[in-house]
Fold each of these.
Amino acid sequence: MGKGGEQGGESGEPEAQIRFYTWEEIQKHNLRTDKWLVIERKVYNVTKWANRHPGGHRVISHCAGEDATDAFQAFHINPTLVQKFLKPLLIGELAPGEPSQDRDKNSQLVEDFRTLRKTAEDMNLFRANPLFFSLYLGHIIAMEVLAWLMVSYFGAGWITTLILACILTTSQTQAGWLQHDFGHLSVFKKSSWNHIVHKFVIGHLKGASANWWNHRHFQHHAKPNIFKKDPDVNMLHIFVLGDTQPVEYGKKKLKYLPYNHQHEYFFLIFPPLLIPVYFQIQIISTMIRRRFWADLAWAISYYMRYFITYIPFYGVLGSLSLLTFVRFLESHWFVWVTQMNHIPMEIDCEKHRDWLSSQVAATCNIEQSFFNDWFTGHLNFQIEHHLFPTMPRHNFWKVKPLVKSLCAKYGVQYEEKPLGKAFVDIIGSLKKSGDLWLDAYLHK
């Protein structure tokens, strides 16, 4: 466990004794009731504080027993400010003979990535353009107004309703991309302003919960495509993903569904039902169960605004049907965009890679164009977004060459593909996993 020593402060008075720890000792503290982590060689006991973590207790638990320096830098726009919360949790430092990285990670790669981040900071790539986000919010509100004007002037006929549904679907999807920006603290310099506007966009413009999104999405960013840590690959036994899970299910003779046909029933289950059914149930139950009353109030304001606007034209049942149809269309858009970057990539158990390697292994990019940028909310730059989640999305293209160069230097595969191929790869990946399951189920 370590050595102790005293250090003198500037006043010449001795400070509290510092304890030194080895990685072997630190890695033992990765349990639900016992969590240590390392940031810049300092060791912190976050066991009791984890439940008060603004990003949720799970995301901080996923880094327990590890060097969390890069994750800490990635998620906080003002690390110096956050240090005041860490100070009471400090229990010691890495022993002088211990490497800064755990589990034999490539220390030079890690240092080069941190140098790249510093370069991006010096290039002001973490500074948002207020005009970009103002116009983006403006075009969402304009679509909401246009939808109301259409039904006001042309009535609630079938053609008008179909066009109206497409406009509302577009505004809802684009509001989803915008709330993503504020949720990642990538717009304002102060976290508090990002949080306030995030609640407005996801709550009042979409009827969802900011806290639900934060607690779920940050886990995905911390450990993308890692079973038991990334909620986005928890498929509730409906799908098997990657190369190892299908074989594991097959060997155990688990057959909740005919997984060799999952690339076919994907069209009937995932895109149509994710938002209108699964997310809606999860959001409402989470807000009530976790007592996110402020989020619930924002969500109620959305539904009040929506029904006040459309009940005069469609009635209660008609307005509810229209909303369900819009969610149905939005769900298709959302699923294809968000899954094309991840499902075809490596999905496996924890391998304790460095930040760069773990993020790039789980993500891929889609070729840039004005349409692709708008259609995906700049998630076509998924690699850059995962490496730098607080970077404003309009700057991804600027840091992209630096990222590609660093990946090439260390032989880390940087994958980019056309939009259409990315969609096809989702189905191909599901079919491959299904075939692996069937082979293991029948023959192993």
Note: The two ends are 45 Å apart (CA to CA).
Amino acid sequence: MGCSRNCGLISGAVIGAVLAIFGGVLIPLGDNLIGKAVKKEAVIVNGTAAFQNWLVPGSTVYREFWIFHVLNPSEVIEEGAQPKLEQRGPYTYRVRYLPKENVTEGENGTITYMLPNVASFEPDLSVGTENDTLTILNLAVVAVPSVYPSGLMQSLINSWVKKSNAAILQNRTVNEILWGYVDPFLDSIPFPGVKSFVGVFYPYNGTTDGPYSVYTGTEDITKTAIIESYKNQRTLSYWPGHCDMVNGTDGASFPPFVKKDQVLRFFSSDICRSIYGVFHSEQVVKGITLNRFVVPREAFASPTEVPDNYCFCTDKEISENCTLAGVLDISACKAKRPVYISLPHFLHASESILNNVEGLSPNEKEHETYLDIEPVTGFTLRFAKRLQVNLLVRPSSRIEPLKKVKKAYVFPILWLNESAVIGDEKAEMFRTKISGKLQMLSTLQMALMIAGSVIFLAFLVSYFICRSKKLK
């Protein structure tokens, strides 16, 4: 009888140990099965889940604009006063809803495509209409000192500036500001090749961006979606040194098995450079656990703080010998027009830049850029790309509307938020095919290990208790 009891207890302990060991074995075995499944579906090849999500965005992408309206135009025009700004918006457009064009398979496991640019106004998601009129900077006039630095040329151009009665500020509709209008000053210049149509994003609708060539991941899964070339080049010809490299993906997806300690690099043609994100926090979106990566303050820091940023400092005067942070001169890729990019409301910018205008209130929650990534597949399931477009205003003794400007400063025009979140149907599919199975496997692993350990300890303790009683 004693032997039977002891044997039963030992058998129970053995069973518990086997269950615990089996649960432990499931971890590498399950990871291996998951790895194989992900590698099969994550490559950008026709017929995979990744290809369908890559060809046409799986979520509706919106681009919201907030335009900075000048509240004290008379003082700015007549006295060169500090502008008082008020953001008006959002004016919302649906973008990125057309499939990629000219998709062709390349060599060395790459695929090439063009990205169509299109924007469709969404009145129900906007505060007004595209015909709302706002007071903003005169885009053409303030660009003259940068595009034509010669004093003689500026004096000549000033005659057409005065003839058109141009001022440093102007009233324009939302549609004109964003997508373009015929500028009276430029239209009066008789020089051949001078384009009279200007706008913050002109030309946009009906154009394409690219060609892009990216790795499909068929030859190396760790290169999936990494950009091999942009416009048939590995560099941009805008920046010196390593800053000119096209690095990472386009941000829509990353190679699978993303780790929290990774630095995720991605290229944005909007800002004419590659940038990066670092892990911030875990997020749960529609039942799917995601890792949030944000563009850190250091990405726009001055070279005195982050030496690697030295090659983004191209204007020693405005940056005060590369000591100021928060703005990026992209005039090299904007035909010398003095366009400066920053985060909205000059988030993370030096105080001296922020204090040149009134009415801005930087806020990390509202103004930072983030990507929420499903770590196993590398898919970006929610994101918000936020940036601000500014123009450099320089004083000029030869251009009438700029004579009152007291010093050079960066003038905000508008900021935008391009965002998307995975739709309900896609989220359900994702939970069913990927995250649900991962969660089930993880739960089974833990249940077997915990149950096995408890059974093993319970029977082992019972065995020793019985044995001690028998000895007594």
Note: The longest strand covers residues 380-393.
